[in-house]
Amino acid sequence: MKLLGRLASINVRKVMWTAAQLGLALEREDWGPGFRSPKEPEYLALNPNGLIPVLIDGDFVLWESNTICRYLATQRYATTLLPTEARSRAHVEQWMDWQAGELNNSWRVAFMALVRGQPAAPDAVEASVANWNRHMTMLDAQLAKTGAYVCGDTFTLADVVLGLSAQRWQNAPIARVELPAVAAWLRRLSHRPGFAEYVGNGMP
Description:
Elements: E1 2-4, H1 10-22, E2 27-29, H2 41-44, E3 54-57, E4 60-63, H3 65-75, H4 86-114, H5 122-146, H6 157-171, H7 180-189, H8 195-198
Parallel strand pairs: 1-2
Antiparallel strand pairs: 1-3, 3-4
């Protein structure tokens, strides 16, 4: 299997961290800023969105990073990462979808302005930071309730995708609220295979 996308991408790193949890060696090819453009016809034929990453597994092509993570877990029958029981799986996927939609949208303006240098109105950045902290407070409450991982006692794909997001929040140049459950959870995650390489590597 081959993954197309540069390692600086948080979405590429979540797939690579999933692979590390599975003991799966993915071949990775650099695409994105500084490398080959995902707007090239060759890439657009694989992903018409022109975004990274893309997974190629033989003649099967897949895009959307959270979906790729689910595919890899299913391929390896990793039922702890992605349960087969309907309610347990729905709980994991609920938090994965929340990460991709709600949480990501909360930080987009602030992160792109403060880290990527895109122009934005100061009040829009301030509102985005407040919204980002509000969403992270929701995650903190969930972790305080479980006392371990996002969905309970077991590490799942919800922890993979949200772990990358939480690390981004922790490293961002913003005023952060104190979230002790998130801090304790990140310390637990730091002992997982691949964390140092794909999460705690200083990349935003």
